[in-house]
Design a protein that fits this description.
By secondary structure, this protein is of the alpha/beta class. It contains eleven helices and 13 strands. It has a six-stranded mixed beta sheet, with helices on both faces. The chain has a three-stranded antiparallel beta sheet with strand order 10-7-11. Strands 1-2 form a two-stranded antiparallel ribbon. The protein is globular.
């Protein structure tokens, strides 16, 4: 069995983009190169990692298991490359970082652990709060940097940011759901089904914006701030939802399966990134944190950051106010 880093990188990009063509654009290679690399990877593993359909690709159960392993491997390689360029022992001090709920629960922990091991002299003070509170804290200088859903930012005149990763939104349903039998599924089809609405981290207004743009509305059965409640209700067949790959898991807490598929409409991605006060001069710990995440996420096949402007041995958690 021969598996290359390129094959893993192309697979991760395709899994996250949901379309081979889009992955090829992000990787700056041909579509045939991405297809060939994934086929070679599947042959080497003896597993089918992606399901192909006219609307795009989706990760199989085996593919989902391998996806996380591939991300970890590529991140480790990127970290090793970074270590050869920068001496972590030269960077020390404190860094105040604001985070929103989704970022704190589904994105940041594994990166924080690696950062802590790489930069033992940097202490991070984490502050969880809603996006509006974090934006004000950045403007006031109460925190140095934030990791949040930059697709929700509302103060571009005072807040500089860069996107680290874009997470595609897909339809979630129970296996055998009526929508799964359709060749193509659009928001108009979803509107005819009971809908489970997630409300945390401004999910509700974000959701309603793309529904309104399509000229239809969801038939909301239940609103909740709990991702696990959404997961269990969808898996139990009570309704469907549209959420990002970042929070997707193939099983509910009680062991029922959840399946996903792409929609016909171009649903906006959920973008996670870094933000800081536009006029701020970043201290060495903040620069190290930003560069670390850039290297890690570029290494796992995410879209390269777009700079819109211009770290922990001890992690102290500050609750949201």
């Amino acid at each position: 069995m021969s598996i290359s880093l390129k094959q893993m990188r192309y697979f991760v990009a395709a899994a996250e983009a949901g379309r081979i063509g889009q992955a090829a654009v992000e990787l700056n290679v041909s579509q045939s190169a991405v297809t060939a690399a994934i086929q070679q990877l599947e042959a080497g593993l003896g597993l089918r990692l992606l399901d192909r359909a006219p609307a795009g690709v989706s990760v199989t159960l085996e593919g989902g298991r391998f996806l996380q392993q591939a991300r970890d491997i590529l991140a480790a390689v990127a970290e090793a490359t970074r270590r050869s360029r920068v001496s972590p022992q030269e960077v020390g001090g404190s860094l105040r970082v604001g985070v929103t709920y989704t970022v704190a629960g589904y994105f940041l922990p594994r990166h924080l652990m690696r950062f802590a091991a790489t930069f033992p002299r940097v202490e991070i003070d984490l502050f969880e709060a809603p996006r509006t509170v974090i934006e004000q804290a950045l403007a006031d200088g109460a925190i140095d940097m934030a990791v949040l859903l930059v697709s929700n930012l509302r103060s571009p005149q005072s807040i500089a940011f860069e996107t680290l990763t874009r997470s595609r939104r897909r339809l979630w349903s129970a296996p055998g759901h009526a929508l799964a039998r359709l060749d193509r599924v659009g928001l108009a089809d979803v509107a005819g089904q009971p809908y489970i609405m997630l409300t945390v981290d401004e999910a509700k207004p974000t959701t309603l914006r793309y529904w309104e743009a399509a000229g239809v509305a969801p038939n909301v059965l239940f609103r909740t701030s709990s991702v696990e409640a959404v997961r269990s209700m969808v898996a139990g067949g009570m309704g469907v939802t549209i959420l990002s790959d970042m929070v997707y898991r193939p099983w509910s807490l009680d062991g029922q399966r959840i399946e996903t598929r792409l929609l016909e409409e171009d649903i906006p991605t959920m973008d996670v990134g870094l933000a800081w006060a536009r006029e701020a001069v970043l201290a060495p710990p903040a620069e190290a944190f930003r560069d670390f995440l850039r290297f890690a996420l570029t290494g796992v096949g995410h879209q390269r950051p777009e700079d819109r402007a211009a770290p922990p041995s001890i992690l102290s958690m500050t609750p949201a106010s």
